[in-house]
Amino acid sequence: MIYLDYQATTPLAPEAKDAMLRWLDGPGGVGFGNPHSPHRMGRQAAAAIEAARDHVAALFPPGGRVIFTSGATEALNLAIRGSGKVGHVSVSAIEHAAVLDTVRDAGKAHILNVAPDGQCNTKQDMPSDTRLIAVMAVNNEIGVIQPTIDWHRKAKEAGALFLIDAVQAYGRIAVTGADMIAVSAHKIHGPKGVGALWVRDGVTLHEQQTGGGQEHGLRSGTLSPALIAGFGAAAALAKERMEQDAAHIDALWERACTLFADWTLNGSEEVRWRGNLNIRKDGLDVGRLMSEARQVMFSAGSACASGSGRPSHVLKAIGLSDKQAKSSIRLGFGRYTTIEELEEAAELINNAASQQI
User: Fold this and answer.
1) What is the pTM of this model?
2) Is position 120 annotated as part of the catalytic site?
């Protein structure tokens, strides 16, 4: 099998796995202690969590704190629900469902439009009572990098907080200019089941998960030393390899563009994370394509929305018709993808597509 679905999840880095193993020790080991217990084993587990917190924080701007969560979805819920209840929340039309659905459930939603290239248009007005603006750093479906610096400036002018969903950007590109940033470990070669919300100093949130008052009183529940240690190791590795990984992905992108030269690119070619190639062939039956090229793991859109049968809200937002959206595929590659795998995958996908069109 060839894995080209890096936006859905990434392979676990060996370094992250190694970091986790000590904290999975059973009877006779010392790594299974509760990090909230006062005894020696608890203190050791707590120290491992704080060491990992430092590694995770090193990829955020200075002047904030890291709150560990079960993933980006919980982090986004904490940010949106915990930052207030009065006023509108303005969000881009191409946000992940974890943002869009939470905003719609939590209060008054205001949807910001996007340009055909996939960038959220900064030349638009917001409700006068806007309390929070949420614009993601890199779109998970089309890879387009959003103008978050400009949106942060607009938020400050409006007296609103600014939230970035940085799941697809964290560990890959610098993410700055925000009041809150949500991330997930399994998108940077860490384990599933753990993420974080970075909160700028001075920003007050209200607890959304009550219980023991862990994580600065914002996120109750026993923390997992194993998951957090894996997250910390993945973050440290991402920081160390950022330039190396980016160069590798640039090479993959250049090759992919030649291999899929007769497909149409969705979203901006210039302002994007190059590990995401979202392309289409009008009239293509993507379900049939995925079946016939089943040796290749790729996507027809967001993994979280797969199987719904609905056209992508992201592709619709940039002006594609239902038919065009449903004839699009997303190829995601990264650190462990080889040129040879990409070439083999392209041959399988292109051969299968040629049987239809």
Assistant:
1) 0.96
2) no
